[in-house]
Every structure is written in C-alpha cells, then in structure tokens.
Specification:
Elements lengths: L11 E7 L2 E8 L2 E8 L34 H19 L20 H11 L7 E2 H7 L6 H9 L12 E2 L10 H18 L10
Parallel strand pairs: 4-5
Antiparallel strand pairs: 1-2, 2-3
Helix pairs in contact: 3-4
Length: about 200
C-alpha cells in the first residue's frame, strides 16, 4: 500500500462495511471520485472510521478550474451518504440503479471517449450484459474493444459504473475479479425471482 496522498480540494473519504466487503469511497463537491474494495489489513483503524470522513491513499488530482466552485465538504459528504445508502440497497436486492453524480476529472477520467464508454456501461440494464465490442460501437468508436476492456479494468467507481455487466464476445468474463461475477449472479437471481413471482428481493451472497 502506498503512502496517503493529498486529498482532492473539498474532498472527503469514508470506509463502508458492506455485504461485499470493505470499500473506501471518496467524493468531491462535484460527485463521487473513487470506490475501491480493500482488505481489512489495508485499513488503518486508528485513522479511518466507519462513520466519518477520513484520510485515504487515493492519488486524486482535480484538473478542472476550481474558481467559482463550492469547496465546502458538505456537498461531498452528502454524495458519500447517498452512495452508501445506494450500495446497501443494491446489495440487499432492493435497488437496481445508481444515480449519484460522478466527478470525472477527480476520478482521473479526462478524455471524452473514456467518459462515453463509462456512460454507455451505465446504460446496460440490471442483470444483462454487453460485450466489449458492442460498448465500443455504442461509444462511437468501433474496433476499440481492447481499449474498452482496459477501461473496465481501470474503472474508478465500480458498482456505479457496472463493469461486471461487460463481458467478452465469447461470453467469458476474462480476468475480472471474482466479486464481479458474483455481482452479475446477484442481479440475475433477483431478475429470475421476479419473473417467477417468487418472494424477494434477494440479498448479495
């Protein structure tokens, strides 16, 4: 683990203890900048508390002109609170979409193609999948499937950008983390239960 990095101006961070494990999330007044799943041994309990904004090691730099921006931490903390609520609802099977804003610049996503790829991924319906090649086409640049795959690996805010719904053309998941497959299975269980008229929602497991 690297040393703590300077936080984005006006940014706050929070540790979430969820059904899918520990997550550190960071937000600025403009939106969510980062979500990273961590192991318990990566967290300094003396410096990071579940219920308050806390230091983090994210190397987040805001390249936009901050002049005229409200850099009070209240808006950032509000984004974190909304995200925490939505992650909990999603993992409980009650929520199927995230509607928190993202701060692309603070997340390090500066080129328009990358942003468009992530936006297209956000449009993939709950429980369904799309291929790297199709996302590339939808983002306006066919034959860029390999780059889409790379962007899925580098995604700054998983869950909100559901890269677990993007698969290879042959239906494989590639070398994605195991938890992403579990997220897709979680969604498909809830969709199947709903179609079958079974009691729900079903929690992540």
């Amino acid at each position: 683990m690297s040393a703590p990095a300077p936080r984005t101006p006006g940014g706050v961070a929070r540790l979430l203890d969820t059904a899918a494990g520990l997550m550190i999330v960071e937000a600025t007044p403009d939106g969510i900048a980062r979500l990273v799943q961590v192991d318990a041994d990566q967290v300094d309990a003396d410096r990071l508390d579940h219920d308050e904004a806390a230091p983090t090691w994210f190397n987040v730099k805001h390249h936009d002109d901050d002049e005229g921006h409200d850099l009070e931490p209240g808006a950032a903390a509000e984004h974190l609170a909304h995200l925490a609520e939505q992650v909990e609802g999603y993992l409980a099977g009650r929520r199927r979409e995230f509607d928190v804003p993202l701060d692309w610049a603070a997340a390090g996503v500066h080129d328009e193609f990358s942003r468009e790829v992530y936006r297209e991924i956000q449009h993939i319906p709950y429980g369904e999948t799309s291929s790297y090649g199709q996302v590339s086409i939808d983002a306006g640049r066919p034959r860029n499937a390999r780059r889409v795959g790379r962007l899925c690996t580098l995604v700054p805010v998983p869950f909100v950008i559901p890269v677990h719904r993007v698969i290879r053309a042959d239906g494989g998941m590639g070398n994605c983390p195991e938890y992403r497959l579990r997220l897709l299975e979680h969604e498909r269980r809830n969709v199947a239960a709903e179609r079958a008229g079974k009691a729900g929602p079903l929690p992540f497991r």
